[in-house]
Amino acid sequence: MDRDTVARHFGLIVRRHRTAMNMSQETLAAEAACHPTYVSLLERGKRNPSLDTMLRIADALNVKASDLVRETEAKL
Q1: 26-60: per-residue pLDDT in tens?
Q2: If pLDDT is split at 50, 70 and 90, which confidence band does 14 have?
Q3: Which of 31, 54, 55, 74 is most buried, with most CB under 10 Å away?
Q4: Spatial contact of 32 and 68, defined as CB atoms under 8 Å apart
Q5: Domains in the chain and their CATH numbers?
């Protein structure tokens, strides 16, 4: 598994959940206690979140982190 491919798919899944909630990157960042630039980089597959960041993002998106991981695995 290529790290860049995993990051890209994870980011697209985060973006899909965020846009389905009509949430801006800024709102997601505020609710997940991270910087809006980080959310942008994450969604573009330029960053891999730490476990604690993934849990905060999942919570802000009202999904389980395991669901985000499962969806990423399905895309690989």
Answers
A1: 999 999 999 999 999 999 999 999 999 999 999 99
A2: very high
A3: 54
A4: no
A5: 3-75 (1.10.260.40)
Q: Which amino acid is at 68?
A: L
CA 1 to chain centre: 18
- Return the DSSP state at 26: H
CB 44 within 8 A of CB 11: yes
CA angle (63, 71, 4) in 5-degree steps: 115
Measured in degrees and rounded to the nearest 5, phi and psi for residue 46 equal: -90, -10
Mean pLDDT, residues 6-17 taken together: 97
Side-chain half-sphere CA neighbours of 14 within 13 A = 32
Inter-helix orientation angle 65-75/3-20, to 10°: 120
Question: Which 8-state DSSP code applies to residue 23?
Answer: -
